[in-house]
Automatic annotation (TrEMBL):
This is ABC transporter ATP-binding protein. The keyword DNA damage does not apply. Residues 1-12 have a biased composition (Basic and acidic residues). Residues 1-33, 314-341 are annotated as: Disordered.
Length: 341
């Protein structure tokens, strides 16, 4: 595909899917008329069974996501936070059609996406694109940037919304980047290429899974600002996953907190950060050295002690308090060097 053959045949914002897309046949009368709700999760549950060879609890059932119901309005920047193993990636995979729920339903723009044909899932790929944590492993090192951006769309027969040159310009890379290979770029630039590729089919929804975690601290802010810009410029709904609460606060206007497969608290970001209601959210915030200290002018250890005391005063049982209050700040939550502080 050349840069000139820009395609504009994707349905416009708020239009119904094209024939052959989700919404055809028996579901057509239920198609959402607009983009009011971008993503709906209805009682979504995902179980895995550990392999018999697993060293820990072989053969045991893991409830990675447990009965999650959620609606993400169109145009919102939605953050998903939680510690490692809380189920964030499993949830994202189900939203993206890369995995299926054991029970429950995922709808994108009103259309159920599971149990669908590949042809119908092509519709989903046009609506929803992903940016992953590690751009080096998600970009084919043998391909030039022009091919990287255009090739997946050609392979799947998905028309592009913009030309490669336009996309490179939008993500702040020079036009001659198109001729180069991924290894000729810095980590931050490679993530810009990933963003350009994600924007190529003119999606409505961008899923970003820890998009800056693998980057040097010095370039994180630039990539976050880029995501900010393209979400505005392309009128996107953003689902942004991170274990780094300060990054989510910077980017997202709504946030959900996941713990052990469940969403324990969801709400407007500032409200949730300033006045967390769930003990686990308090613990997460108290575990963030810089953010916690900024919130209360205290050290993380002091904040954890205060959380413990507050929970005990509320009559929360000792076991539950122990489960959510770790008096030692977790070193992985979040980066000590928050460029946005
Ligand atoms: N394919 C799988 N088979 C078995 N268990 C799995 C599988 N995928 C995920 N799990 C388990 O499901 C739980 C949730 O994992 P998930 O990767 O979704 O968490 P996460 O919050 O994204 O963690 P991280 O931040 O480390 O990526 C974990 O206990 C994990 O071991």
């Amino acid at each position: 595909m050349s840069d000139e053959d820009t395609a504009h045949d994707a349905p416009g914002r708020g239009e119904s899917p094209q024939p052959g897309a989700l919404g055809e046949g028996e579901n057509a009368q239920h198609a959402a008329p607009g983009r009011e709700v971008a993503i709906s999760l209805r009682g979504v549950h995902r179980e895995f069974r550990r392999p018999r060879t697993s060293l820990t609890r072989p053969g045991a059932v893991v409830h990675a996501v447990r009965d999650v119901s959620l609606e993400i309005p169109a145009g919102v920047r939605f953050g998903l936070v939680g510690e490692s193993g809380s189920g964030k990636t499993t949830l994202l995979k189900m939203i993206s059609g890369l995995d299926h729920p054991t029970s429950g339903e995922v709808l994108i723009e009103g259309q159920p996406i599971h149990g669908r044909s590949q042809r119908q899932l092509k519709w989903l790929r046009r609506r929803l694109q992903l940016v992953f944590q590690d751009p080096m492993s998600s970009l084919d090192p043998r391909m030039r940037v022009r091919e990287i951006i255009a090739e997946p769309l050609v392979a799947q027969g998905i028309p592009r919304g913009s030309t490669v040159d336009e996309l490179l310009e939008r993500v702040g890379l020079p036009a001659d980047s198109a001729r180069r290979f991924p290894h000729q770029f810095s980590g931050g630039q490679r993530q810009r290429i990933s963003v350009a590729r994600a924007l190529a089919p003119d999606p409505h929804i961008l899923i970003a899974d820890e998009p800056v975690s693998a980057l040097d601290v010095s370039v994180r802010a630039q990539v976050l600002n880029l995501i900010d810009e393209v979400v505005d410029g392309f009128d996107l709904t953003l689902v942004f996953v991170s274990h780094d609460l300060s990054v989510v606060r910077h980017v997202c206007e709504q946030v959900a907190v996941m713990r052990a497969g469940q969403i324990v608290e969801v709400g407007p970001t500032e409200q949730l950060y300033e006045d967390p209601q769930h003990p686990y959210t308090r613990q997460l915030l108290a575990s963030v050295p810089r953010l916690g200290a900024a919130l209360a002018g205290r050290s993380a250890a002091e904040l954890a002690a205060r959380t413990r005391a507050a929970l005990q005063a509320e009559g929360v049982g000792e076991d539950e308090v122990d489960a959510v209050v770790d008096d030692e700040p977790r070193p992985t939550l979040p980066s000590e060097e928050d460029p946005h502080a």
